[in-house]
TrEMBL record:
<feature type="transmembrane region" description="Helical">
    <location>
        <begin position="190"/>
        <end position="207"/>
    </location>
</feature>
<keyword id="KW-1133">Transmembrane helix</keyword>
<keyword id="KW-0472">Membrane</keyword>
<feature type="transmembrane region" description="Helical">
    <location>
        <begin position="258"/>
        <end position="283"/>
    </location>
</feature>
<protein>
    <recommendedName>
        <fullName>Amino acid transporter transmembrane domain-containing protein</fullName>
    </recommendedName>
</protein>
<dbReference type="Pfam" id="PF01490">
    <property type="entry name" value="Aa_trans"/>
</dbReference>
<dbReference type="InterPro" id="IPR013057">
    <property type="entry name" value="AA_transpt_TM"/>
</dbReference>
<feature type="transmembrane region" description="Helical">
    <location>
        <begin position="373"/>
        <end position="393"/>
    </location>
</feature>
<keyword id="KW-0812">Transmembrane</keyword>
<feature type="domain" description="Amino acid transporter transmembrane">
    <location>
        <begin position="29"/>
        <end position="431"/>
    </location>
</feature>
<dbReference type="GO" id="GO:0005774">
    <property type="term" value="C:vacuolar membrane"/>
</dbReference>
<feature type="transmembrane region" description="Helical">
    <location>
        <begin position="414"/>
        <end position="436"/>
    </location>
</feature>
<feature type="transmembrane region" description="Helical">
    <location>
        <begin position="121"/>
        <end position="145"/>
    </location>
</feature>
<dbReference type="GO" id="GO:0015179">
    <property type="term" value="F:L-amino acid transmembrane transporter activity"/>
</dbReference>
<feature type="transmembrane region" description="Helical">
    <location>
        <begin position="161"/>
        <end position="178"/>
    </location>
</feature>
<feature type="transmembrane region" description="Helical">
    <location>
        <begin position="350"/>
        <end position="367"/>
    </location>
</feature>
<feature type="transmembrane region" description="Helical">
    <location>
        <begin position="227"/>
        <end position="246"/>
    </location>
</feature>
Length: 440
């Protein structure tokens, strides 16, 4: 064995034995229980309350089948993404490599035809991640304000939705100043408890009367409803930025993945809850279902008012967790490019936190709409982040000789990319059509 072969052999051996999890430096790692609480809180939010309106598009049998398939597929793609990150960490001998940097390194070493796109994709992934998290925060602002407004309107304190959003700014700003995930655990715990209380109150209305299962509730409405359903389901199910942040901050990240790992268990709970809320909500209210089921609850009843305020509080407490992801991405870049004193760092830190509260809040004030924007954000951001990009990452990492017999893994990755692209184009098109139809 000559010198170059020995070096290559040793490098390969180092890559095999190197464990990135042991080299992560997280100041305040989260426990298994903390991570599960954050995962459920990050995925069970406004999305679960919009599922009945999604079920109304597909019919009950189609929704059960499609949501189960989409949830399983999305979880599979998430495993591909986390696995790709792990492989890149082993190659680079680093404890952690962020999503955009993973894309850059994978494409740079992938097929020659794609290597020119490494740098553009790096910035594009970053941009989509930030856009997604700020989009969620924007939707959360509208959701909280709409539900609080309904309760206030009933008691005669009728002010505009934008006025409610203005009142919301100060408490949102205070929440946005929370510095790390460990400190957010109490908020997520309270939010999960409050959310469960809200579900109990909502289910009281869903099961108090006999439901009617007529033929109309079993059928798909139109073919255009399929991409909107997929976009809404992706929005509801996949909190990609939160999942990656949780896996990174976990005390034992090896327990996050695997057949019986934390992520799979969490996804089973989430999909079951979404199906239950979606199906029972649609059976109760039929085609009169609103973009959020809380808006269907009777305004004059105390239990309904409690449910609306309960969910408003739960979503409000989820705001800093979603905001934290965008902050983490941008703060890493600022710290690398700006060499400052501790005092200047403090000022920059809190200035960024304030900006990341003000931007989604300002968009919510400008366009206080809920329904079509949920499917639009899901179709655009999550089709890319949760489907297309993981497929592309895996295909590039396996280049040139790790595609398996008959290149079946390459064929799988291409199918994933094509499916994600189809979801993106069709979902964005139909969502934009709905937005313009609503305006007219």
């Amino acid at each position: 064995m000559n010198g170059s072969n020995i070096c290559a052999f040793l490098a390969e051996e180092d890559e095999e034995t190197y464990d990135p999890h042991k080299h992560r430096k997280v100041e305040k790692p989260t426990s298994y229980a903390d991570t599960m609480i954050h995962l459920l809180k990050g995925s069970i939010g406004a999305g679960v309350l919009c599922m009945p309106s999604a079920v109304a598009r597909m019919g009950v049998p189609g929704s059960i089948l499609c949501l189960t398939l989409i949830g399983t597929f999305a979880a599979y793609c998430m495993h591909l993404l986390i696995g790709a990150q792990y492989k890149i960490c082993k190659r680079a001998r680093r404890g952690y490599v962020a999503y955009p940097r993973c894309m850059f390194l994978a494409v740079q070493d992938g097929p020659p035809l794609l290597r020119w796109a490494a740098s553009p994709l790096y910035y594009f992934v970053d941009g989509v991640l930030v856009l997604w998290q700020l989009g969620i925060c924007c939707i959360y602002c509208v959701f909280v304000s709409e539900n609080v407004k309904q309760v206030f309107d009933f008691y005669g304190a009728e002010i505009s939705l934008r006025a409610h959003l203005c009142v919301l700014l100060i408490p949102l700003t205070l929440l946005g100043l929370i510095k790390d995930l460990k400190l957010m655990t109490p908020l997520s715990t309270v939010s999960n408890v409050v959310t469960m209380l809200g579900f109990i109150l909502v289910f009281f209305y869903l099961i108090e009367d006999d439901v009617e299962l007529d033929d109309d509730k079993l059928r798909l409405k139109t073919l255009l409803d399929i991409p909107v359903f997929i976009g809404t389901a992706l929005f509801a199910l996949e909190a990609v930025g939160v999942v990656l942040a949780l896996e990174y901050n976990m005390e034992e990240p090896q327990r996050f993945v695997g057949l019986c790992g934390l992520f799979n268990i969490g996804m089973i709970i989430i999909i079951t809850l979404y199906l239950t809320m979606g199906v029972f909500g649609y059976l109760k209210y039929g085609d009169d279902i609103q973009p959020s089921i809380t808006l269907n609850l009777p305004q004059e009843e105390k239990k309904a008012q409690a449910a609306k305020l309960t969910f408003a509080l739960a979503i409000f407490l989820s705001f800093p967790l979603q905001n934290f992801v965008a902050y983490s991405i941008l703060w890493r870049k600022i710290k690398k490019k700006v060499a400052t004193s501790p005092k200047s760092t403090f000022v920059l830190d809190y200035t960024l936190r304030l900006i990341l509260v003000l931007v989604p809040w300002a968009v919510a004030v400008a366009v206080p709409r809920l329904g079509p924007f949920i499917s639009l954000f899901g179709a655009f951001c999550l089709s890319l982040l949760a489907v297309v990009f993981p497929g592309l990452l895996d295909a590039c990492l396996r280049y040139p000789s790790a595609y398996g017999p008959a290149h079946f893994r390459l064929a799988r990755d291409i199918l994933i990319i094509l499916f994600g692209t189809a979801c993106l184009v069709s979902g964005c098109y139909t969502s934009v059509l709905e937005i313009f139809d609503d305006k007219h």
